Amino acid sequence: MKKVKTFLRSGLLSFIVGILLSSSLSAQENLAPAEPTKIEAPATSSAAPGVEVKKEDSDGAPAQFTHGLLEQISGAKVAIDTMWVLIAGMLVFFMNLGFASVESGLCRAKNAVTILAKNFVVFAAASIAFLVLGWGLMFGDGNPFIGTQGLWFVGGADNSPAMGDAYNGVYSSINWTGVPLWSKFFFQLVFAGTAATIVSGAVAERIKFGSFYIFSFLMVGLIYPVVGHWIWGGGWLAKLGMFDFAGSTVVHSVGGWAALSGAIVLGPRLGKYSKDGKALPLPGHSIALATIGVFVLWFGWFGFNPGSTMAADAGAIRRIAVPTNTAAAAAAISASITAWMLLGKPDLTMILNGALAGLVAITAPCAFVSIPSSLIIGLVAGVLVVLSVLFFDKVKIDDPVGATSVHLVCGIFGTICVGLFAQAEFTPNTTGNGLFFGGGAGLLMAQLAGVVGVGVFVFLFSLILWEVIGATLGVRVSPEEEMEGLDVNEHGNVAYPDFVTVTSRSSTMVAGTTGTSGEAVVREYRPAISKGAVSSELG
């Protein structure tokens, strides 16, 4: 009899868990993102008419069984949600490889090591800065501008995964997700690291390694979490009604503004502009590596955007994943067509940046817009990034990888798109309808306020940091070091040791660095093959 009871209880548990999981797979299109359903034990029990309810045994077994069953179901949900958040965070972490590949591929071989080193250490610096102070400033309870509680080492009171009214701690702005505290921290950390990584590409090929290291640490420790508090930490922009689901502003625009200020302070690379001000190509050494990097980033974005639900809500995840992909694909197509029309060729670097532009633009509105709207957003972003790259070249702001065009310009655009394309039916009780769907200009004005407020703060604060670092340590390498390459001078090694550098001079300005005589110094890498090796190969 005991075995029968055990079997029945196990079957009932399996049935209920199955119902729970299948319900998460149903079309929950109207659930707000990252708002998992709380499971609570019923306060009372009732029976059908005419059915005698047996009083509980002296040991309270039926009540204990019900309570224990609900606890098991609730625990299973927390476990599933936690696994999803951690996996999504790992996908975002994997994007560091994408950034490293894109940036090193679009820069010259003589600077490949320093690009890779910067992308590697930036996450290390971000990890420590966000742990020590960044998390507390961003999510700690405080005032509309900064968090003031639980600042140091994520050490504030917290009873996560408790949610809503059941939460008792100092990080109440993120109590809407039912996962443990350190899972929340890890997911937000990889976002912080992404914001810092964006800066690397815009300042490539002429910045001192140590100065970049220091700036990255200060950016993640001070600049990024303040903006994050304003929007995601319950700060003044959140109270104003601004929405940024996955970070077009919090991550990408913050990184873009910091990158722009750095590019301005550093100035253009040697040889980037001719005497008459014409922008000259300084082609990267491996378009193949850059292409691989964009594929990695595109893949990682499926953790970036859907992962921001911070709950294993299959309905919400799939509804965010499809607009994310649609915008990227549309932007790649529109960027290729735009480049074809303006440049005469479907430039691959423009296509790659086009895909990234679509991903950045859809990051803020991905949970709030329809799939047709995401198509439009992507198409516009693809055109916008090409025009932006040409514009920055025209005003002599040298960005070797187009980071400001992708992350800043399209991050701003994506933030504005929330105010234009949002539809209340997708996430009730959040954005309401945007301007194009009868919601008026209120939401759009809140989004614009966020763009301006964040832009002024991040640009000015970053500019001050760059200037202070420049006045104390210096931010740019010497002309001689830049001409020879940062790999040898900054790191003492090269990315391709089996190749030798061949230097020649030409009266025609081509891709390369400018010599003291005004002629172009053309550097290329050729295989270091000895005559003996050649003879051996020939047999």
Do you know the CATH topology of the largest domain? Ammonium transporter fold
Q: For this structure, what is the CATH homologous superfamily of the largest domain?
A: Ammonium transporter AmtB like domains
What's the β-strand tally?
A: 3
What is Rg?
27 Å
Relative strand content: under 5%
SSE string, helices as H and strands as E: HHHHHHHHHHHHHHHEEEH
Classified by CATH, the class of the largest domain is Mainly Alpha
**SS content category:** mainly alpha
Question: How is the topology of this model organized?
Answer:
Layout: H1 2-25, H2 61-105, H3 112-139, H4 181-202, H5 209-231, H6 236-240, H7 248-266, H8 287-304, H9 314-343, H10 348-363, H11 371-394, H12 403-421, H13 442-472, H14 479-484, H15 486-491, E1 499-506, E2 513-514, E3 520-527, H16 531-538
Antiparallel strand pairs: 1-3, 2-3
Helix pairs in contact: 2-3, 2-4, 2-8, 3-4, 3-5, 4-5, 4-7, 5-7, 5-13, 7-12, 7-13, 8-10, 9-10, 9-11, 10-11, 10-12, 11-12, 12-13
